[in-house]
Design goal:
The complex is a heterotrimer.
Chain A lengths: L44 H13 L5 H11 L1 H27 L42 H37 L1 H16 L2 H12 L4 H31 L3 H8 L4 H35 L13 H10 L6 H28 L7
Helix pairs in contact in A: 2-11, 3-4, 3-11, 4-5, 4-7, 4-9, 4-11, 5-7, 6-7, 7-9, 8-9, 9-10, 9-11, 10-11
Chain B lengths: L3 H26 L15 E5 L15 H10 L4 E3 L6 E3 L2 E6 L5 E6 L13 H12 L17 H5 L3 E4 L15 H10 L7 H6 L14 H6 L6 E2 L3 H10 L1 H7 L3 E4 L7 E5 L2 E5 L7 H4 L10 H7 L15 E7 L3 E6 L13 E5 L4 H9 L16 H4 L5 E2 L2 E10 L9 H9 L3 H8 L3 E2 L22 H10 L20 E4 L3 H18 L5 E3 L2 H9 L5 E8 L6 H4 L16 H12 L3 H18 L2 E8 L2 E2 L4 E2 L15 E2 L17
Parallel strand pairs in B: 1-13, 17-18, 17-19
Antiparallel strand pairs in B: 2-3, 4-5, 5-10, 6-7, 6-8, 9-10, 11-12, 12-13, 14-21, 15-19, 15-20, 16-20, 22-23
Chain C lengths: L1 H28 L13 H10 L6 H13 L14 H36 L4 H15 L2 H15 L17 H27 L2 H8 L4 H29 L3 H6 L5 H11 L2 H29 L6
The chains are: A mainly alpha, B alpha+beta, C mainly alpha.
Chain lengths: ~350, ~650, ~300
């Protein structure tokens, strides 16, 4: 087992290195399963084993339950959770409710030419107050509320699924690369570099030409592939960086010395310790994926008109910002509210999952 | 944790909303009769948004309108687009004659024409330029516009004449014509006034006033048409297989490539350009304003190759010469003192800004950084606000928007179904929605070609549409129209993504939903992929199309279906239609010709391979102090007439008078 | 370390060739041609064009020609913009994108780091919430919304700044595009810095450093910031590479002659030489920046070795 005294040559100048200034052994014993019961550092297999054993015997303090309990204590996170749930429910049920109360669906263009224009919120065509369009109408006289709600379905689905895909691939790829190091790391990262360099648009054009246009469902799957395909790359690099910095720490060395398998070290010991930046980056991925979807519709990959997404609604709205500001404000604010909530939730989740927080 | 954070969030949201509302209110409160700042530029210059970045500054290479706008400043042609109607007006040619069957055009150049470097510009420059435009090595994309010129297509496609090695005589086209074809050809041109044989013997018959300029080449042009066969052996064999006469004619003969010198352009003297056509084309003078036919500087091209278009190498012939070219940024042209009419050129410089982002250019216009924009630049949603303003220019445009129908696939192979879908669209409502356009029921844009009788086309009639669909077999037991019987999964409406295409498609979809109870799925396809599926007829149902005329004549629209079989993206092709057009072009009286063309249009619409939607309108902005610029049908401005008026009393308040040229 | 750098620089060459090969294959698979347009060209014109650009030759001849040119760093002439060499387009557009991208990233880095560090130091304070709320605003305001908004306010309402166009460097024309471009990166950096710093600030070596009586500023700048920067550094490689190689949205909104706009158009126009040239350039930049990032890792965190 190596300890901190056999550090690489570059790090021998103490003042420059975080570790060099540390007189005591590092105590990053934050692997999810040993935290609660183990003392500050895990030394041997036996300890780990006993820790796991110990933990399972402790009633109701599994990692997730524990995290959930802490999450509920975080008022902002709870606020975020509630808002996200509300928006989710609204976008699932809302369109039905609206079409049954006002008769407007997201694609309904009035037959009367006089109604085919953009009315301000709560304004009836004759200028009086009306509840029919609380968010106004768009250029074709369609109800913006109905469009925002239907757009929510698409955007939330796109944002969450694509981010999940990017998390899944990015974490496993980045952690493996960072942990293995050397040649394997070099190869894996060069593959990422190649993927970065390829013309993304061309890939989508080709994907669409080969698999597009079969069915709406296929189109959706293609969309997730296209969005997931790029967003995991930066994630992988971030995870790799974290893992490279963690992998020579004592708790990993300990685990390795006690014969824990490589995959177990990566996924049980290293990955949980990278969750901070990962969750932050994931919450940043959601908006970028949502907006990218609007761009892809330019290539014919996004949702097909007259269906809308928040991204496409905002892109349309900005064209008319000077004249019909409500076309941008309502989709924009809904999206911003969702993203804020998701971020509070993400921050809360991170804090809840971060074992160090428990000591604070 | 506390609630401060959510308060911050609230504040941020409120601030954002306020900023948006404040910004929009302040801009709205700023109401004047013009859009944004109205301040003439300090210098005597025009700053113009010219559309997409030009693909090239070689007029024979790039064929688009954005480039045409720049070429009109730096290259002069035989004729120029008139400022108000786009009809040809004399430019480098002072006057011209046409022979009596519209196959020969003789142009007389103005005396003392010069290139911008001082070299004389002569008829030889035109001959050089026409030959270059058609040369296979240049591979000009618009070369087909010159195919009306005799042997031009042969030269451009690398085709061959057929010659008898013993006698040296060329095989003639009529020698290999099959009986039926000969007959068709005869009936096809009953109005051809001059017999080919007669012409061969007495060339002066066709020459009008230019008998004194007799040349051997001219005689060659009036010999009977030589046979032109493909340069590709396999294709020749294929043609020969179906035509025994051709097979016989080819046996034992030698093939001679059609050369640049064979095409029907000659310079009998320094100041005369004579053009001979392969077929009558009454609209040919109008076509000559196109950039393909503008003379290019031989000296610069031979010296610099492709780099001749760089400002330091460029030699110009127009009212302006190229000074600066910064791609995607600006093109600057300045006064050309060598131009024949330099004293009547008003502006010192023109700045062309290449951008196609509507919002960006409207911003620049509003901020007073540009003086005018190209066509279709005002987003429809802005029109409620902009239409009353006095610097908004709207006039009919030589451009149409329509949906093509793939008539090769069921259920669209049934003309009743095609007609039903056409009748189920309320085009008046569509045009109200698009605000700047006029409804289009026939194929010809309205109000562009004076004297052309409007073909009515089918109007909006949802009841009849449903009846037609019922007749086509989509009915229930009692014979009424039943939408559930219609194979809606076999139909789509595909379009290339753009905000306006999508808006129209959504509207049309809603119309069909309301009137036929059918929800046709929309499908946006990236442009080049879209073109591919359209030209291969792989799309199902409908695909978006639009056409801007190449020249000011109805034929530019009707010729879209003149193409070889099905090559027009619909699969519809009818030899009778082609013959009707040929007959019309052989007609010498313009009124009668228009009537024949209208008949052909009506015949085509009976088959309904397209759903006409809208006649476009110019829809652009022009500051009131920019004078001499008119929203003409192609938005192509003859720049020498444009000037900056500093006296507000003489400004344009509204669309300037466009009645007389 | 030197050997490591040399190796990585050498590996760039085969990497670029691989990227170019894959791209070339993709272009071949994509439907449509550089010359297709609203009206279908007559077959003769099409044939002339294909011959002119050597597209009639067998694929291996074309591939060989491509590879030979790429190795010589000569990408030929654009198909869409006839007569302009790809290299001349790169020489013209890269500075525009690079100036824009570097300025925006510099701004983002400065503001983002300060905001992130302050937020982490005063976790759950007003400063923390304020800067994170602003960061979220930056993230949820996409540049296609932020750009026009800024123009609306500063150019069209106040008439302070020009609404668009490139006017050289330095110039006021740059201010709005740089602001627009940096907003989202600012937000990313602030959030990543905050989370990285929080992690490090709780670690024992910082506690030790403080215990040793080092000045707080010293602790933060010399010890904490380094560890906290790790995620930001990981993010910087790709982000900077993408910024420098052009950002379509901002270039379009502000009508700037940068690389991004050319690249998108090249893809849409199937302009093979231009696509390949830009892709090759991009891949070199990405490899280079990621190399810099890897070097920076070793500097920031000596536990990382290669």
């Amino acid at each position: 087992m190596r300890n901190r005294r056999t550090l690489p040559p570059e790090s021998e100048e103490p003042a420059l290195t975080p570790l060099g200034t540390t007189p005591t052994p590092p105590v990053r014993t934050r692997t999810g399963d040993i935290i609660h019961t183990a003392p500050e550092f895990a030394i041997g297999e036996a300890d780990v084993r006993s820790a796991e054993l110990h933990q399972t015997t402790l009633k109701g303090t599994s990692l997730w339950r524990d995290a959930w309990r802490r999450l509920l204590k975080n008022r902002l996170a709870v606020f975020g959770l509630i808002v996200v749930c509300l928006i989710l429910v609204a976008s699932l049920a809302g369109p039905y409710v609206i079409s049954h109360t006002t008769g407007y669906s997201y694609d309904f263009i009035p037959k009367d030419s006089k109604l085919v224009k953009s009315f301000a919120p709560f304004i009836a065509p004759d200028g009086s107050f009306s509840w029919t369009h609380p968010m106004g109408t768009d250029n074709a006289g369609r109800d913006i509320l109905a469009r925002v709600l239907i757009g929510g379905r698409i955007s939330l689905m796109v944002g969450i699924i694509s981010t999940f895909v990017s998390l899944l691939i990015g974490i496993s790829y980045g952690a493996t690369s960072g942990y293995l190091g050397g040649r394997a790391d070099n190869l894996m990262m060069r593959i990422v570099d190649v993927l970065y360099s390829l013309p993304y648009m061309m890939i989508i054009i080709v994907l669409l030409a080969m698999f597009g246009g079969r069915s709406p469902l296929g189109q959706l799957v293609l969309l997730f592939i296209a969005l997931g395909a790029v967003s995991w790359l930066t994630m992988a690099r971030i995870v790799r960086g974290q893992v490279m910095s963690l992998k020579n720490q004592e708790f990993v060395l300990a685990a390795r010395a006690t014969g824990v398998s490589t995959s177990r070290i990566i996924f049980r010991h290293l990955v949980p310790n990278t969750l901070g930046p990962v969750i932050v980056y994931a919450t940043l991925t959601i908006p970028s994926v949502m907006l990218q979807e609007a761009f892809l519709s330019f290539l014919g990959l996004g949702v097909q008109a007259p269906l809308a997404s928040w991204g496409s609604l905002a892109a349309d709205g900005i064209q008319n910002i000077a004249i019909f500001p409500w076309q941008l404000i309502f989709p924009g604010v809904t999206m911003a509210l969702t993203l804020f909530s998701l971020n509070f939730l993400g921050d809360g989740l991170r804090d809840a999952l971060d074992p160090q927080m428990r000591k604070v | 944790m506390d609630l401060h954070a959510s308060r911050w969030v609230q504040i941020a949201c409120v601030l954002l909303t306020l900023a948006l509302v404040a910004a929009s209110c302040t801009t709205r409160a700023n109401d004047s009769q013009f859009f944004g700042l109205v301040k003439p530029p300090a210098e005597n210059v025009l700053r113009y948004i010219s559309g997409d970045e030009p693909e090239s500054l070689d007029p024979q290479v790039s064929s688009g309108q954005p480039e045409a706008r720049i070429y009109m400043a730096i290259f002069a042609g035989l004729v120029e687009y008139g400022p108000k109607t786009d009809a040809p007006i004399p430019e480098l040619a002072e006057h011209w004659e046409v022979n009596n069957d519209n196959t020969e055009f003789t142009f007389h150049l103005r005396p003392n024409l010069h290139w911008s470097n001082g070299d004389p510009l002569t008829a030889q420059d035109f001959v050089y330029s026409f030959r270059r435009a058609l040369s296979p090595a240049l591979a000009s994309r618009s070369a087909y516009l010159a195919y009306y010129i005799k042997y031009a297509e042969g030269y451009n496609s690398g085709a061959m004449f057929v010659r008898d090695p013993q006698s040296g005589a060329f095989v003639l086209a009529r020698d290999v014509e099959l009986e039926a074809q000969t007959k068709a050809a005869e009936t096809q041109s009953p109005s051809a006034p001059v017999d080919q044989k007669q012409l061969a013997e007495h060339p002066e018959l066709a020459k009008g006033e230019t008998t004194e300029l007799d040349t051997p080449f001219h005689h060659f042009m009036h010999e009977p048409d030589r046979l032109v066969v493909s340069g590709d052996e396999a294709e020749r064999a294929k043609a020969a297989a179906t035509n025994p006469k051709l097979k016989a004619a080819l046996a034992g003969k030698e093939l001679v490539p059609v050369k640049a010198e064979d095409i029907g352009v000659e310079a009998p003297d320094e100041q005369t350009v004579r053009i001979s056509l392969a077929q009558p084309a009454p609209f040919f003078v109008g076509l000559l304003a196109h950039q393909l036919f503008r003379p290019v500087p031989r000296q610069a091209i031979e010296r610099f190759g492709a780099a001749w278009t760089q400002p330091q190498n460029m030699i110009c012939s127009g009212a302006f010469k190229l000074e600066q070219w910064k791609p995607y940024n600006v093109i600057v042209v300045g006064r050309n003192p060598q131009y024949w009419d330099a004293s009547n050129v008003n502006l010192d410089k023109i700045y062309f800004y290449p951008t196609n982002e509507a919002t960006t250019m409207m911003n620049m216009y509003k901020a007073g950084e540009v003086d005018a924009t190209y066509n279709h630049t005002v987003p429809p949603a802005w029109l409620d606000r902009i239409r009353p303003l006095k610097d908004y220019m709207n006039a009919p445009e030589m451009a149409t928007e329509y949906y093509q129908i793939n008539i090769t696939k069921p259920p669209m192979n049934d003309v009743r179904v095609r007609k039903a879908f056409n009748m189920a669209i309320d085009k008046q409502a569509l045009s109200d929605f698009r605000k700047v356009t006029k409804p289009l029921y026939a194929f010809m844009p309205e109000g562009i070609f004076p004297g052309y009788a409007k073909v009515p086309g089918d109007g909006f009639d949802p009841a009849k549409a449903r009846k037609l669909l019922a007749e086509a077999g989509y009915r229930d037991a009692s014979g009424n129209y039943d939408p559930t019987k219609f194979p809606i999964n076999q139909v789509e409406l595909s379009y290339n993504p753009s905000e306006s295409n999508r808006a129209v498609a959504e509207f049309v979809q809603a119309q069909w939903k309301q009137n036929l109870k059918l929800t046709v799925p929309l499908k946006a396809i990236e442009w080049k992929t879209f073109l591919d599926t359209r030209s291969r007829l792989e799309y199902k149902g409908f695909s978006r199309a639009g056409w801007i005329g190449d020249y000011a004549d109805p034929f530019t629209f009707l010729a879209l279906f003149y193409t070889p079989k099905g090559d027009n993206g619909t699969g519809w092709w009818d030899p009778k239609y082609v013959k009707m057009l040929d007959d019309a072009n052989h007609q010498l009286d313009p009124q009668k010709r228009y009537a024949l063309l209208a008949q052909a249009e009506s015949y085509m619409l009976d088959a309904q391979p397209v759903i006409p939607l809208l006649t476009n309108a110019t829809n652009l902005m022009k500051k009131p102090y920019v004078k001499g610029m008119y929203p003409n049908p192609q938005t192509l401005h003859a720049w020498k007439f444009v000037y900056i008026e500093r006296d507000p009393a003489k400004w344009d308040y509204g669309v300037p008078d466009m009645s007389a040229e | 370390m030197l050997r490591f750098i040399m190796r990585r620089i050498l590996v760039t060459i085969p990497m670029v060739l691989i990227v170019v090969t894959l791209t070339w294959g993709l272009i071949r698979l994509a439907p449509g041609n550089f010359y297709s347009g609203e009206k279908k060209l007559p077959p003769a014109v099409e044939k002339n064009l294909r011959e002119k650009y050597g597209l009639n030759q067998p694929w291996y001849v074309q591939y060989y020609r491509l590879m030979r040119n790429v190795v010589q760093l000569d990408f030929g002439t654009s198909l869409k913009y006839e007569g302009q060499s790809v290299n001349s387009i790169l020489v013209r557009t890269v500075p525009v994108s690079a100036i824009l991208g570097l300025l925006a990233y510099l701004l983002a880095l400065t503001v983002g780091l300060i905001a992130g560090v302050l937020a982490a130091l005063k976790q759950n304070s007003k400063i923390d919430y304020a800067s994170m709320a602003l960061a979220m605003l930056g993230i949820s305001l996409p540049s296609f919304v932020l750009g026009p908004l800024l123009v609306l306010i500063f150019s069209l309402t106040l008439y302070w700044l020009p609404p668009a166009r490139w006017n050289g460097f330095p110039s006021w024309n740059l201010l709005l595009p740089v602001l627009t471009l940096s907003a989202i990166y600012m937000a990313y950096i602030a959030r990543l810095t905050r989370s990285g710093m929080l992690e490090v600030l709780r670690s024992d070596y910082i506690r030790t450093a403080r215990a040793k009586g080092l000045k707080e500023l010293d602790v933060i700048l010399r010890h904490a910031l380094r560890g906290g920067l790790l995620p930001v550094v990981s993010f910087t490689g790709p982000a900077l590479a993408l910024l420098v190689t052009g950002t379509v949205v901002v270039e379009r909104i502000f009508a700037l002659p940068g690389l991004g706009n050319y690249f998108i158009n090249a893809n849409l126009n199937r302009d093979e030489p231009l696509i390949i040239g830009i892709v090759a350039f991009t891949s070199i930049v990405i490899l280079l920046f990621n190399l810099l990032v890897d070097i920076a890792y070793a500097y920031i965190d000596p536990r990382i070795r290669y």
